[in-house]
Amino acid sequence: MAWLTGFSYRKSHVINSASNAGTNYQVKIVAHYGTGTDSGGDVYLNNHARNDFGDVRFTSSDQTTLLDYWMESYTASDKAVFWVEVADNLSSSPATIYIYYGKSDATTTSNGNNTFILFDDFDDGIYDTSKWTTVSGSPVESNGYLRIQGADVRSTNTVPAGHRQKARVRLNALTINSQFCWSSQLDGSEYQGWWCAIAGTLRTETYDNGGTHTESAFTPSLNTWYNYEYCWYVSGGVGQSTKFYVDNVLKSTHTTNIPDLAPYVGFLSVTNNPIIDTDWIFISKYVDPEPSHGSWGSEETSGQQVTRAVVEYLAGYDVKSRMASLHRVKTDYVGLLDSGFKKLGRNIKEYIGLLDSTIHSMSRYVYRTIIEYIGLLDIKSRISSLHRTLIEYLGLLDTKIRTVNLHRSFIEQLSVLESKVKSLSKTFTEYIGLYDFIECWKNITRRIITEFMGLKDTISKRKHLMRVFIEYVGVTETRIIKKTLHKIIVEYLGVKERYYRLPSFFKYFKWRHYQHPKQRVEVNS
């Protein structure tokens, strides 16, 4: 499982296929800041995004490849409107995309030029002649918009037949023959858009060797910004329909005299009035019906990916591949750029929810996990499940824990470059809250036996701990023998220098029948 680095939350979303939609189709998504039920193109970010939506990103189905998008508008701590360019071919099959959010230091990467066929927000104060050609008059770009006053402007290049044109426009008057959100052939044989043909009102017009129009489709308030739009559908080289909108409200639908050919985009103000100000304009792909919005996935957090990766992707690998994959998972998803114990400790606190480092807290969490998620309700099932887990997921193909596997796990995955008692003691002291090594032995052993295995008496402790040593640690006799115990202490724990009294250890578990020939073994400090 992949994850976009640095982002805390995400949701998946299915975009359904549509005939002739093709690749790089632009879809609209409305992201709401608060809580609610995700449906259609509306998604709720559960108060986890920045209030300016600057940390919202979109990726393809591989979960990390960023998709181009443009943020049309936003209201802080309320909602934002996005247009996302879906890279997959929506003609033949649906696509899954992801919305990421939850990164407090992020700023928006909204980019209309990368998202649309043609786009201009007129923010840089420079009239872009690679996009626009002046037919007459003197258009002016300033203050974040393009002003057309007694001028005629068209796009430098044609745009595809069949598209969506949307523009944010303000008029200071409704004068005859002013045109905007408009496209046409140079010879005037085909055209369509919003047109003031009669003073005081706007009509919608389509023309293809004959005209169809809807008079008084909309009467705007002067000097007020509106989002004007038309959606033009062409199939098989023949114009099928054009729908006209103002602020996302359908005003008229034309199905006759629909243009067929790739046109130029245009603005026209025939006199000094009206003044036509355009804040932004874009051309996107359009088919009818459009690709519809499918289901939304539940909100995921970055920490969940470790569990999903282990369960879904590591099962079935051999032990070498599993360790390599697990290392990659830790590095990519949990942010363990080094796998030292200090970093591991911090991630346990942050991602697993251990808000204190006491044995009691850890025991409670592990116990709850075993009961709720693994469903082990008795000692027999626990031991059986543990055995199965070791065999199936850790790649141990016999019933004994091999020294090489355990040693390699410590060396390669946890960066424990030496397995001395001193290092182990430091780890328990700093991260688990045990402040001396003797308490480590007593508390951990006692709690594991009494709390996790449910054994309440000394006889049961001795019996089942013996069973664990025999089945899982590789002790092949029915009693702890000198050679095996010495191997465990020396090879796994690196006991080298300080003295450790073996009779005391076994006296604690009442294994009085055992007599070790030596009184003490050298251990490391």
**What CATH first level of the largest domain would be assigned?**
Mainly Beta
CATH fold label of the largest domain:
Jelly Rolls
Morphology: globular
What's the helical proportion of residues? 25-40%
Radius of gyration: 35 Å
- Which architecture of the largest domain would the CATH scheme give at its second level? Sandwich
Number of structurally distinct domains = 4
Q: Report the total helices.
A: 12
What is the residue-mean pLDDT, rounded to a whole number? 76
Low-confidence stretches: 333-345, 351-367, 369-380, 393-407, 413-438, 475-481, 496-525
Quaternary structure of the protein: single chain
Percent of residues in beta strands? 25-35%
Structural class: alpha+beta
| CA-CA gap between termini | 42 Å
The strand count comes to: 26
The profile of the biggest β sheet is:
8 strands, antiparallel
Summarize the entry for a quick read.
This protein is an alpha+beta fold and 525 residues long. It folds into 4 domains: 9-117, Immunoglobulin-like (Sandwich), CATH 2.60.40; 118-284, Jelly Rolls, CATH 2.60.120; 303-454, no CATH class; 456-525, no CATH class.
